[in-house]
Amino acid sequence: MFQVKVPSHINVLRMGLICLGLPAAGHVWALDATVQGLSGAPADNVVNMLSELEADSQSTRERLDGVVRNRAEQALQAFGYYNAELATRYPDEDNERVVIDIDPGKRTEITQVDVSLDGDAREDEAFENAMQSNPLKVGDPLLHSRYDGFKGRLSTLALERGYFNSRFRQQRIEVRPWESSARIFLDFDSGQRYRFGHVHFRGSQIQQHRLKNMVPFEPGEPYLAGDLATLNQNLGQTNWFSGVAVRPRVNEESSPAAPSQWWREATGRDTTADPDSVLGGPGLNAAREITDSRPTVVPVDVELTPADRHQFEVGVGYATDVGPRTQFSWTIPWLNRYGHSLTNSLYLSAPEQRFSGEYTIPLENPLRDSYRVRYGLKNIDNEDTKSFESSVQMARHWEFSNGWAQDLYWQTTYEDFTQADQNDAVLLLYPGISWSRTRKRNQTFPSWGDRQQLTLEWSDPAWGSDARFVRTTFDSQWVRMLGSENRFVGRIGGGAMATNTFDKIPPSLRFFAGGDQSIRGYSYESLSPENEDGELLGGQHMLTSSIEYQRHLTGNFWSATFVDTGNAFDEWWPDELKTGAGVGVRWISPVGPIRFDIAHPFDDEEDSWRLHFSIGPEF
User: Fold this and answer.
1) Helix 225-237, helix 144-160: angle, nearest 10
2) What percentage of the chain has pLDDT greater than the value 70?
């Protein structure tokens, strides 16, 4: 019987290797090996082991053959073949190739598995699950990769869950080649589980208590590496910092005492003598138990680098709906030590010019709760619509753990407009509430994702508004993949409004359909009820939907086939749905997806086609 200690399966394959000891001079080449008599992973492992071997023109065949056999045996033993018989042949005189005939013999099986767990991990559910899923079973062939994988899982769990003094008190495999049997012994001592200490922030320009509200653990709670990752993510999402470094402090202050330290604490004597030479046997163990029972605490240090106070961005694009467009943005991610932030943007296109801003006041949990003041000016000159709008919105914002966001707001809007033959200037005061959620994988070109949004608003002259209405809008979009080559994009959206003062409703609250993001084949916001002169009035209701199939072509190019339908109307259900269909190409460019579509509106008497071009992801 012999014992094998295996710290990792890579070491198992390479342990005990002898070097060729060849002189540096001479031609050197990689050995080309062929295995016969055995197939699958064990044979591949032999080939891989020998592929790393270099032969030399000055080496003897006997010396080379010894190394080849040694490596082949180790590669086979990793798969439980301890009784293999090897026959080697070298077809070429220069020893560039070797053919190995293998009779693997009987495979070694596991006859005994003795795995034990000690320490605080015995009460840890994660370790309980790991022990229950132990892949080492009596009767199974001996695979060193399973043994190393199980050991690695225990070690990884220990590091992730704060068992920093964990160790294997016993780790060995006893192989009996004459019996083709193996016994496995693992004794893992986790020791005490460390607990979180206090979090220390350094370099922050924001109040400490606001940062502490984003810490996902309390001092004294069991250590968990995932909580540190969450803290790092939380701080990064505030946009207050350009750099975040979260480091647990596992050192002499939080680790069990060094020998001289626990000797002084256990005996009350200050001595530099080796405690093992002074105290032995049960006394030594008892002293160590005193130290091991001490609370183990991990303080956390967080190094922060403030973000730039002023951040500017310029964007230039093009879309068929609006033509060339430009946007300038100015962001102040932190205005003061309370973490207030400000964002302003200016958007310019032919039909629309818009200035908007948002002032954010974070509350106790800056990522979840805030007050938001939104303001803006907007000028529109498109089709039969001319409008100048100014608005201010006061909102309370919530972010929920399930991914949904909620806004409860009060909107004040003054709009001077002309819509077809209607013109007016109105002041609207109304409360509203909205819910939204966006989920996606891969921000640029999602392989999976969806977005939902629902808004409810109510205006009434009772509180000074010039119009009475109840208005709701909804939108739902989704992306799904079938395999890696087929992509589906769907969308449904709409809105409805109840009012007896429609002539007082400004264009910004009426409904229009048509365009790149609505119904392709029709121009931007060209669909709505019309007056006697054929001018657009806007509708009280709207419904649109779309289904699109995309197929990967090559590289970053995809083809697309789609059908869009819907309309804006005054009475529910619409008398007529406008439908467009077509084909397109998607290019995932460095600046984002670029979409080029050609669509046909089915009800167009001229049987025309319309081109649509836009840049950016679906949502």
Assistant:
1) 60
2) 86
State phi, psi for 563 to the nearest 5 degrees.
-140, 125
- Provide φ and ψ at 567, rounded to 5°: -175, 165
Structure tokens at 116: 């034990």
* SS3 assignment, position 366: coil
Nearest to 167 by CA among 118, 224, 99, 112: 118
Name residue 594's beta-bridge partners. 587, 615
Peptide bond into 573 cis (omega under 30): yes
Which two structure tokens, joined as six digits, stand for 389? 């709008």
The count of C-alpha atoms lying within 13 angstroms of the C-alpha of 148, restricted to the half-sphere facing its C-beta, is 15
CA 314 – CA 327 distance, rounded (Å) = 6
Global pTM exceeds 0.85? no
Q: What is the CA radius of gyration of the chain?
A: 36
CB 556 within 8 A of CB 588: yes
Neighbours of 429 (CB within 10 A): 17
d(CA 245, CA 242): 10
> Using one digit for the tens of pLDDT, what is the confidence trace for 255-310?
443 444 433 433 344 444 443 444 444 444 444 444 455 558 999 999 999 999 99
Q: Are strands 405-419 and 385-399 parallel, antiparallel or unpaired?
A: antiparallel
Assigned token pair, 570: 């005054």
Q: How far is CA 548 from CA 238, 524, 586, 588, in A?
A: 36, 19, 12, 17
Q: How far apart are CA 201 and CA 6, in angstroms?
A: 42
Kindly report, residue by residue over 301-352, the tens digit of the pLDDT. Answer: 999 999 999 999 998 888 888 889 999 999 999 999 999 999 999 999 999 9
Query: CA-CA distance, 248 to 55, in Å (whole number)?
Result: 48
Q: State which H helix or E strand residue 288 sits in.
A: helix 281-292
Report which of 232, 240, 236, 202 is spatially closest to residue 215, judged by C-alpha positions: 232
Strands (E), 400-421: 405-419
Whether 431 and 414 have beta carbons less than 8 Å apart is answered as no
| 3-state secondary structure labels for all residues of 447-485 | CEEEEEEEEEEEECHHHCCCCCEEEEEEEEEEEEEECCC
Query: In the 3-class helix/strand/coil scheme, how is 495-540 assigned residue by residue?
Result: EEEEECCHHHCCHHHCECECCCCCCCCCCCCCECCECCCCCECCEC
State the virtual CA torsion across 207, 209, 214, 217 in degrees, nearest 10. 140
Kindly tell me the burial class for residue 356, based on how many C-beta atoms sit within 10 Å of its own C-beta (0-12, 13-18, 19 or more). Answer: middle
Alpha carbons 475 and 618: distance in angstroms, whole number: 13
Contact 541, 569 (CB under 8 A): yes
